[in-house]
Specification:
The chain is built from eight helices and eight strands, in the order αααβββαββββαααβα. By secondary structure, the protein is of the alpha/beta class. The chain has a domain at 116-294: 3-Layer(aba) Sandwich (Lysozyme-like). The radius of gyration is 49 Å and the shape is globular.
């Protein structure tokens, strides 16, 4: 009996030791498993950014994606913004076109060669209802008031306004062409006179013609009705007569006018001087004007 109890005690001790050993192994496994997970977390922590940097990175990524989308789609891609831009451009283009059409209607058949707009008030002209068949050449200056500075374009322009007269074009000493009246309007440049080959135009040549004023001064005799001899003598010699630049400009302008007005023949019967229409009272463009230099 005693022996039986001893064996049972030994068996309990052995079983207890085995149980402790298994628990120890399980405890060793848990730290190992936790250690691996912890190690894994440490690796992940190395590649993850702080919160503020993550936001910045996300914003940059979003910006890059947006740039890629915009680059891919481009203007006119059908998006709401691009459609709005297209509409705005269309409206702007139509407005410019309408403005151009309006200006063309108001200013009439404008020269296709370079000119500077120097339009006179409408009171200095009237609507045209007759075909254009003639060009009338004139000279003009402000020599009677300012012999040392007779070609101030603004002063000459003001003189036209003050006297209620006009011409379609004005040509400066350097060949610059100014447009003062649209060709579709009648300018007041020729006044009373007559042409033998066109008796029906008596005192009405304005209605059938385009007037070209050239900044120039004729001979002393031709200018006698406009100024005293002493004034004329004080004018610098280089201001007398016409310049080569003016002849070149006149030639180009006449070619352009004739092209747009087929009723004008490029001949001396249709392109004339003011002194030919009104010889009793006018001397321009005068004897210093060389008609051959404008190809007529």
């Amino acid at each position: 009996m005693m022996l039986k109890k001893t064996w049972m005690l030994l068996l309990i001790i052995i079983l207890g030791l085995a149980s402790c050993s298994n628990d120890a192994e399980m405890q060793d496994d848990k730290p190992k498993k936790f250690s691996k997970a912890e190690e894994k977390n440490k690796i992940v922590a190395k590649v993850e950014l702080p919160a503020n940097q993550q936001i910045s990175a996300n914003e940059n990524a979003a910006k890059n994606n947006q740039e890629k989308i915009e680059t891919k789609t481009g203007p006119g891609d059908g998006t709401e913004e691009s459609q709005s831009n297209i509409k705005d451009n269309d409206v702007e283009s139509k407005e410019k076109t309408n403005t151009t059409v309006k200006e063309t209607k108001e200013r009439g058949n404008k020269s296709s060669i370079p000119t500077i707009d120097l339009f006179l008030p409408n009171a200095n002209s009237e609507s045209r209802d007759k075909p254009v068949t003639h060009i009338v050449m004139h000279f003009t200056s402000n020599a009677a008031i300012s012999p040392k500075n007779p070609y101030d374009v603004q002063e000459i322009h003001k003189t036209f306004i003050d006297y209620g007269v006009s011409a379609h074009y004005l040509i400066g000493r350097d060949g610059q062409i100014y447009q003062m009246v649209p060709e579709e309007r009648v300018a007041y440049h020729a006044g009373k006179g007559h042409l033998e080959q066109f008796p029906q135009y008596k005192d009405h040549l304005n209605h059938y013609s385009i007037g070209i004023e050239v900044m120039a001064i004729g001979t002393k005799e031709e200018m006698g009705a406009m100024m005293e001899d002493s004034f004329y003598d004080s004018i610098p010699k280089s201001y007398i007569g016409y310049t080569e630049a003016q002849y070149q400009a006149i030639r180009h302008l006449i070619d352009d006018i004739v092209t747009r007005n087929p009723g004008i023949k490029k001949s001396r019967n249709h392109i004339i001087g003011h002194d030919e229409y009104a010889p009793e009272r006018k001397t321009d463009p005068g004897s210093l004007f060389d008609w051959s230099k404008i190809g007529i």
